[in-house]
Amino acid sequence: MDRAHRIVGNRQYDVVIVGGGPVGLAAANLLGGYGVRTLILERCTRPIGETRAVALDDEALRILQSLGLHRELDRDILSENVRVRYVNRRGQTLFEVENQLQPSGHMIVGLFIQPLFEDVLRDGLTRYAHVDLAFGHDAQTLRQSEHGVQIAGKTAGGERFEANASYVIGCDGGRSFVRESLGIPLDGSTFRERWLVVDGLMDGPQPEEVRFHCNIERPTVFVPRLHGHRRWEFLLRGDEKDEDMLAPSRIQQLLKNYVDPSQVRVQRSVVYTFHARNARSYRQGRVFLAGDSAHMMPPFAGQGISSGLRDVNNLCWKLNSVLSGTLADRILDSYDQERRTHVQSVIRTSAMLGGIIMTSQPWLGWVRDRLLRTTTRFKAGDRFFREARFRPEWRLAQGAYAFDMRRDRLTGRLLPQPLVRDHQQSIRMDDVLGNRFAVIGVACDPKKELSPNLQTQLTELDAAFFTYVHENERVSTESTLIRGIDRPLSVERGRILLVRPDRFVFADLRPYESDSVASELARTASRPKHHHNPSNGNGAAFELDRGHPS
């Protein structure tokens, strides 16, 4: 990004993001797209350039699509043509995960190169003149008041700076200054086990398989990525010292069990201890936590960055709606309600997969191997693992949706994303819907079918109206017509879907249920009476003071 800033004196923004890693950059791109005046404060003086995370899931890839950056990632950074296989110490398959196309419209896993990924996110910010990125700005104090949040600190050159905002998002990692300033504890535990992570470059064809070697003698993980990038992760034994295992000769000994070590150009080696921790709250007043600031999890499910992207995708449309006066501040309470319980279930799943991989007792390894191989002989067991059904579904249990409409419908779930016809080409449906509220009538016109009361509410939300049909169907409609060409929505004709900007279905209804949904919408997403009246999450009213960047 060419337009990096130095913040000196007092500056006013709608949102300040502390932390310029992938989650903070994604949040800034989301807010930038909504027109929200945003500042990122990053303590480091330049991009770190380290490859820490390597995987994104299909829902995270969908979020990147919403940023308008998926094509840039597809070109040379992201690989979705991979499988995931778990093998025992003899190389026999315990189970595998096929990288199939998901209802989200993306493959179940994508592997990426983090420095290049962050470059794309930073370059994406150049589209928005109202978004500033400040390297070398260390946030040191945070104060909330009735009128907003003030953050102050020092630049790398020792100058004092101060930034004021209506809201702050802490995306500043596991040792979060923001979280510590709020006094929010992290609940959970730290794994005793240590892992040696080795990143290197190799020539030759691109392997198409992530492999978990569930070897009781030394569990190992191998992750291939584009341009010859490779990662190996080795579980260390209790009597092995970090400094000894980081020696180049020792790394070569470990690598030779899998490749010719002379062909590997080691770029980075580090010893990690993994955490399974979740913040007790993701919101305090006008300040929010996201990504590693809010939660840390073992890497075995590849959900670290994906969970952080879910956080900001859930939060940023709500912040924009409150700042624009479209919704009342209480919508922001739903961020913690909707994200924290799902993150906890993802942490449990990650720890469960870690238990499968890290088994080091011979008798436990024997039991594990027999149990998994027996289970996958049955069709249901094979599908459970092959289709990664062990991943916890993110279905809203509480928050901003029509709870009374939940039952067995799409209400409270992510909207499936089929391919649709756009003139002579096929595109993903989200590209038609846009990052806004959407009303989708399935083979019907929502403008004709919904009650006037509900239509008025949806119009105030600036919702767009669509009619969805399969490619060759005909229907009379005043709404924008969407023609699906594969994987239909699997929703009965005549049903209407009210979809949030983050693609969660607020309500899946029949037209005669319009008034009931209108009541639910008024309860969870009503407009503020006096433009904007945020609360601190505990019922105390604030009056927003919105200024302009100088």
Written description of the protein model:
By secondary structure, the chain is an alpha+beta fold. Helices cover 28% and strands 29% of the residues. It is built from 15 helices and 26 strands. The strands form four sheets. Strands 1, 2, 8, 9, 10, 11, 17 and 18 form an eight-stranded mixed sheet that branches. The chain has an eight-stranded mixed sheet with strand order 6-5-13-14-15-12-16-19, with helices on both faces. α1 (22-34) runs parallel beside α4 and α1 (22-34) runs parallel beside α8 (304-323). It is globular. Mean pLDDT is 89; it is low at 531-550.
Terminus-to-terminus distance = 21 Å
Q: What is the 3D form?
A: globular
Helix percentage: 25-40%
Largest sheet: 8 strands, mixed
In quaternary terms, these chains amount to single chain
Q: Figure out the total of helices.
A: 15
Radius of gyration, in Å, reads 24 Å
Counted beta strands: 26
Structural class: alpha+beta
Q: Give the amount of beta strand, in percent.
A: 25-35%
Poorly predicted runs: 531-550
Mean pLDDT: 89
Notable features of this structure?
29% strand, 550 residues, eight-stranded mixed sheet, single chain, 15 helices, alpha+beta
Set out the fold topology.
Blueprint: E1 9-18, H1 22-34, E2 38-41, E3 55-57, H2 58-66, H3 70-76, E4 78-79, E5 83-88, E6 93-97, E7 109-112, H4 114-124, E8 131-134, E9 137-145, E10 148-155, E11 160-170, H5 177-182, E12 186-201, E13 209-214, E14 220-224, E15 229-236, H6 242-245, H7 248-255, E16 265-279, E17 283-284, E18 287-289, E19 295-296, H8 304-323, H9 333-358, H10 362-375, H11 379-386, E20 419-422, E21 425-428, H12 430-433, E22 438-442, H13 446-449, H14 452-460, E23 464-470, E24 480-484, E25 496-499, E26 505-509, H15 514-525
